[in-house]
Design brief:
heterodimer; A: about 325 residues; alpha+beta; 4-stranded mixed beta sheet; two-stranded parallel sheet; 10 helices; globular; B: about 425 residues; mainly alpha; about 0% strand
């Protein structure tokens, strides 16, 4: 374990200023195209041949504005507020649901970390279900961010483990080990993205701008922990099960053809709450907290327990540790 | 001022021909339409209509992509001796090889486009209005080198053909430097594509230093093999002469590359199987299967069988010198490398997953349709390019604006053909 590397936030302020110029150019272009689109809308609106309702017209205009917007990472605060307003309005227009999308940024002095107690986990998978509900995961495809592997006592080998067990737990002579996105300090998935649609936030969470992702799935090939999921078809979440408390970089509605992943419940944890999986766990196997706070439980675990990480040899420096009682 | 007649005559060359020609182009168009319909289903319902899954997240499309990048690169194996080493046997084959490169690149890029989940977001890649993650992402490198290579392979033949068309023989000093660049570029496109996979420690099957060299060896096998088949067809069907020397030299290149390819395969197998570690588990899935999971085993052994058989045939001199055996060996080799470098390379990288789970993959009907459509597109492009280039090369088509006096005779070294005929207005065969 290399605490310095894991605990240090990785700033990209220089890159941001460098890219500001490009962004301005892109913004100018998008305003130009947007203006043309408004003109087109006006023309079609006057045409008696295409009776389009006001709502439909508004939806189309908003969808077009969304199409030409830039990468969230390089947006100004103002642009972020605009796109969020559009997305909230579109959710209302298209699905009739009221959602609140946050853009809460990383809090200073915070670096999130996770620890998983192998001795305690009983394989109930309450965390899996809580994650599905909390993060609006595609119900039809059955997408899950968390995998719980059942292993035989005496063998810690994922090749021999079973993540699809369907029997009463805990099974005799077995133990359980959960995986999800480990929010690596040196994430291979971020490096490979050709359009910079995924990046690491200053609080250590690797996020995706779902609207900037082109769906090439290179990140899925690059992840050594199989943490990323793809929307093979349009995701379906029944309106009554939808979690309206959303974050732009987290659990908001995803499109078909883009990649998504666990964000340590960014919409909750940035407001000081626990991720849904940690809250749902009935055994207390999940410890989540701020690595920069010397009094946090996670720091106590790291200091007092013998911890290890999966595939340390790949040097991706996961911020997710396993330990035993 | 010659551009318009050039375009008109190119269009005429491409659209006129005998019954068999129209039948060929008609069938390709039909297959492309089937592909377009399949792709429309994919656009409508998402990539869920393919056989891919979160576990096997790349499939037939990317398999074809890696293979075709190799084909494109291999065309330069002809350019090198012809223009830089002044080997005249090759000089007439070069334009055809460049047409193969262009067609292969068109297919490779098309396979990437159909594989992308959000193709409307393609503009995000364009620097300036979008953001290209270069130099960090190898995929960004690939976007640059593939498009650059396509531009080079379009520009150089255009310069040569257009020069001939308007009666000005192309000047070597103007294009030779670009030729040098294209040769180096050819190696780079294939290495970059190999690095794209080899740079992922998450996938031990690809994460080997041998992947780049193996890519080159297999490319220099399948590429020239395909060019041999194409040249034989051109020689049989048209008046375009191709020296026998070109065939024997190409066959030699193919033979040597096929041998090196087999040596590297053996080296890979030894490394993966002599000490079977966790890193060899994907190779075990590919070659012998894991438990009841063995979908790729018959494919890879077919590929190895074909490659070994063809390589041995090519190594026996009398057989290699015999056109019929040569053609058969080239066709077999082409299919063998296509399996080995396509399905046999990309799919096992995902099985088992990095967390040890085994989910198998089989392409869906939609995927097969799109794949057939893209291949038809490539053959369509190749046919048109060859069709346009041949009459110009043969001196049958010239710009109508040319005065007879101004025409510089085209000098071809050691040409057995008579001096150029008097210039006539645009005419097709």
């Amino acid at each position: 374990m290399n605490p310095d590397r894991t605990l240090e936030p990785r700033g990209d302020a220089d890159e941001r200023t460098m890219l500001q110029k490009r962004v301005d150019r892109r913004r100018a272009l998008s305003i130009l195209i947007g203006g043309m689109a408004v003109g087109m809308q006006a023309v079609t609106a006057c045409s008696p041949l295409s009776p389009v309702s006001d709502e439909e017209r508004e939806t189309r205009l908003l969808a077009w504005r969304e199409y030409i917007k830039g990468n969230y990472r390089f947006m100004s605060e103002e642009e972020r507020a605009e796109t969020i307003a559009r997305l909230e309005r579109l959710a209302k227009l298209k699905r009739g649901v009221d959602v609140t999308i946050q853009s809460t940024g990383a809090q200073p002095g915070v670096m999130f970390g996770y620890a998983f107690n192998i001795s305690k986990c009983q394989g109930f998978r309450n965390c899996v279900q809580a994650c599905i509900n909390e993060n609006n995961l595609d119900r039809r495809a059955g997408t899950q961010y968390i995998r719980i592997f059942e292993m035989e006592d005496g063998v810690v080998d994922l090749d021999e483990a079973d993540a699809t067990f369907q029997h009463e737990v805990p099974a005799e002579g077995h133990f359980y080990m959960g995986t999800q996105c480990f929010q690596c300090a040196d994430p291979p998935c971020v490096k490979v993205c050709p359009v910079g649609a995924t990046w690491q936030e200053p609080d250590g969470i690797t996020v995706i701008d779902y609207d900037w992702c082109i769906g090439c799935r290179y990140c899925m090939a690059a992840c050594p922990y199989w943490a990323r999921r793809f929307n093979w078809s349009a995701p379906e979440v029944p309106a009554e099960e939808l979690n309206p408390n959303q974050h732009y970089l987290g659990n908001r509605a995803r499109k078909v053809g883009v990649v998504e992943k666990c964000t340590f419940c960014i919409h909750r944890t940035r407001q000081g709450r626990l991720p849904a999986c940690a809250e749902a766990c009935p055994t207390g196997a999940r410890v989540f907290g701020n690595l920069l706070d010397p009094n946090s439980e996670i720091r106590w675990v790291l200091a007092n327990k013998r911890v290890f990480r999966l595939k340390e040899e790949l040097k991706t420096e996961p911020r997710f540790w396993y330990f035993t009682d | 001022m010659h551009l318009k007649p050039f375009a008109v005559s190119a269009l005429r060359s491409a659209t006129s021909g005998g019954r068999r020609y129209h039948l060929w182009m008609g069938s390709l168009t039909l297959i492309m339409l089937v592909g377009a319909y399949a792709y429309s289903r994919q656009l409508r319902y998402g990539l869920g209509v393919t056989g891919m899954s979160d576990h096997v997240s790349w499939g037939l499309y990317i398999s074809n992509f890696t293979f075709l990048v190799g084909m494109a690169a291999a065309a330069m194996m002809l350019v090198l001796p012809a223009y830089i080493l002044h080997d005249v046997d090759f000089s007439r084959a070069v334009l055809m090889a460049e047409a193969v490169a262009v067609a292969a690149l068109v297919m490779a890029l098309a396979f990437v486009v159909v594989d992308i989940g959000n193709p409307l977001g393609g503009w995000h890649l364009i620097p300036g209005i979008g953001y290209l993650n270069w130099p960090r992402s190898l995929l960004a490198w690939d976007v640059l080198v593939l498009n650059g290579y396509l531009a080079l392979n379009l520009a150089i033949p255009f310069y040569i053909l257009y020069g001939r068309f308007r009666g000005r023989p192309p000047e070597k000093r103007k294009y030779l430097v670009w030729m040098y660049l294209a040769v180096m570029w050819a190696v780079s496109i294939h290495l970059v594509t190999a690095f794209l996979l080899a740079g992922l420690p998450a996938r031990p099957f690809w994460n080997t230093a041998l992947l780049g060299p193996r890519f080159l060896a297999s490319a220099f096998t399948a590429g020239p093999a395909f060019v041999i088949l194409l040249l034989a067809l051109i020689k049989r069907e048209t008046k375009y002469e191709i020296a026998d020397g070109a065939f024997s030299k190409l066959a030699l290149i193919t033979t040597v590359a096929a041998q090196i390819n087999l040596v590297m395969l053996g080296s890979e197998l030894f490394y993966k199987f002599y000490s079977p570690t966790h890193h060899g588990i994907n190779a075990r899935y590919l070659f012998v299967g894991l438990g009841e999971h063995h979908a790729l085993v018959p494919w890879i052994w077919t590929a190895i069988g074909l490659n070994v058989l063809a390589t041995i045939t090519l190594m026996i001199h009398p057989l290699r010198e015999n056109p019929r055996w040569l053609m058969a060996a080239c066709a077999v080799l082409f299919v063998g490398i296509w399996i080995e470098k396509g399905l046999g390379l990309v799919i096992p990288g995902f099985i088992p997953s990095p967390l040890g789970e085994i989910v198998e993959y089989a392409p869906s009907a939609v995927e097969l349709g799109v794949t057939a459509g893209v291949w038809a597109l490539g053959m369509f492009v190749l046919t048109i390019l060859v069709r346009v280039a041949l009459p110009i090369e043969l001196g049958e088509v010239r710009s109508p604006y040319l005065d007879e006096e101004r025409v510089t005779p085209i000098v071809r070294p050691r040409s057995r053909r008579p001096a150029p005929r008097p210039v006539r207005p645009v005419r097709t065969r």
